[in-house]
Specification:
Layout: E1 14-16, E2 21-23, E3 39-40, E4 57-58
Parallel strand pairs: 3-4
Antiparallel strand pairs: 1-2
């Protein structure tokens, strides 16, 4: 189930896969994060200007 802020309507973090996965919408992060992308989803339909190379796993 997706949850939204009652003040602004933004997506809020939520738990998936019976508590094994925490989904945190990028727009809800208000500080620097020290992780790098680990994969690229929807690679086959990416925009030409995306520039995503072969340095990520793609699905």
């Amino acid at each position: 189930m997706k949850c939204f802020c009652t003040n602004c309507g933004s997506a809020l973090p939520n738990i998936k896969m019976d508590g094994k996965l925490l989904v945190v919408p990028a727009g809800s992060i208000d500080s620097d994060i020290n992780i790098k992308p680990q994969g690229h989803i929807y690679y086959a339909s990416k925009a030409i200007l995306d520039g995503a190379g072969n340095y990520f796993l793609y699905f």
